[in-house]
């Protein structure tokens, strides 16, 4: 499991950034990002954009989440925090809110991952 944090916008993304087709475990990654979307909507009342980097932001080659997904772990995400008005630096008065909401989303995601490991679904979809 891997998360790479950036400050750009309310995005929770995964591989791939370099081409349009999804990774083999796209269904699993989509399930994990669905949990994140629900968590953020419940805690912040804000809809986050989730999905492959290529489809959510733009085409980009050589990004970390692609390499981590391919070589290290198939469960890898890049999280972009803030909104378009923040210009890459969320204001201090929202850092706590972002931190708490991301922690709750992460806990929800890890619970789903744990259930998948126990049921054997994680290993099946990883291949």
**How far do the termini sit from each other?**
15 Å
Gyration radius from CA atoms, angstroms: 14 Å
Mean pLDDT: 80
Summarize the helix and strand pattern as letters.
EEHEHHEHH
Q: How would you describe this structure in keywords?
A:
alpha/beta, 5 helices, 127 residues, 4-stranded mixed β-sheet, single chain
Care to describe what's here?
There is one protein chain. This protein is an alpha/beta fold. The chain is built from five helices and four strands. It has helices at residues 26-44, 53-56, 64-71, 92-119, 121-126; strands at residues 2-6, 11-14, 49-52, 76-80. Strand 2 (11-14), helix 1 and strand 3 form a beta-alpha-beta unit. Helix 1 crosses helix 4. The model has no long low-confidence stretch (mean pLDDT 80).
Question: How would you briefly describe this protein structure?
Answer:
Helix 1 packs across helix 4.
How would the blueprint of this fold be written?
Blueprint: E1 2-6, E2 11-14, H1 26-44, E3 49-52, H2 53-56, H3 64-71, E4 76-80, H4 92-119, H5 121-126
Parallel strand pairs: 1-4, 2-3
Antiparallel strand pairs: 2-4
Helix pairs in contact: 1-4
């Amino acid at each position: 499991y891997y998360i790479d944090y950036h400050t750009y916008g309310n995005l929770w993304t995964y591989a791939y950034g370099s081409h349009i087709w999804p990774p083999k475990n796209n269904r699993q990654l989509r399930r994990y990002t669905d949990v994140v979307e629900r968590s953020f909507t419940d805690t912040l009342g804000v809809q986050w954009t989730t999905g492959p980097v290529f489809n959510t932001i733009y085409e980009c080659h050589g990004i970390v989440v692609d390499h981590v997904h391919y070589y290290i772990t198939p469960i890898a995400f890049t999280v972009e925090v803030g909104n378009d008005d923040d210009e890459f630096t969320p204001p201090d008065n929202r850092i706590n809110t972002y931190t708490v909401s991301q922690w709750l989303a992460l806990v929800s995601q890890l619970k789903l991952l744990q259930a998948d490991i126990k049921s054997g679904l994680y290993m099946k979809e990883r291949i």
